[in-house]
Write a structure and sequence with these properties.
The chain is α/β, with parallel strands linked by helices. The protein has a domain of 131 residues: NAD(P)-binding Rossmann-like Domain (Rossmann fold, 3-Layer(aba) Sandwich), CATH 3.40.50.720. The protein contains 11 helices and 8 strands. The longest helix is centred in the first third of the chain and has 22 residues.
Amino acid sequence: MGDPEILGKVATTGASGFVGRALVDMLRGRGVPMVDLGRADLSAPALGGVDVVIHMAGLAHRGAPDADFDAVNHRLTRHLLDAAIAQGVRRFVFVSSIHAATADTPYGRSKRDAETAIAARSDEIETVIVRPPLVYGRDARANFAKLLRLCDTPLPLPFGAVDNRRSLVGRTNLCDALLFLAAHPGAAGGTFPVADGPPLSLADMTRLIRRALGRPARLVGVPVPLLRAALTAIGQGSLAGQLLDDLVVDGSALAALGWRPPLAPLDARELVRGPEQR
């Protein structure tokens, strides 16, 4: 899946973002004709000749006003959807978030509202909703970047006793899944959580990351309540939640269509720059 003959012409939003850059590279590598849409281009004329829209652009910045989340993640998505339908685009792929399932934050609610608006138009255009959890890679920001920096030191890390269950997806795997879902006839009308595979504990993640970086695991078993309290005390409460809490994604719907992730969880190729990239 993802062949040019199947996809046709693809329009993307968010092409300059963390996931978008990798998706554009993948599209080019597969010879798929494409156009990148900036915010000023989200109109029907800009979608002339487009077969598939992959909408990745969005606002995820913690602390942004609630109205901004709604304006960017929900209302802008509705505007682009209207334009795609008006221009006769065949399929609309929306990169949502696993947080849309609970909608317990302004970000999650804005993604849920966008999903609702998209589902309501599924009789006018083929719709596909994709729900990734944490997306990681060597250029990731925020909390995963902090974990990657910690793992790339010789210091012992206090995560040996953390036996939680957390799903995540590598950038390459997510991009491959997006192109698979953009092309697969059985994906129309579906909502697809996506993950690398079974969930991992933080201890397992640390071991895999350090192995990819060529470092020994060096884990110390600090009790989880003490670790959580320490992180919260130094102003890293959000990091504590993302590291220590459970967040399990059920990727069975995507697997049932036949998709398999091309890279193993926390594969070194996703985390370490090659010599030509340094």
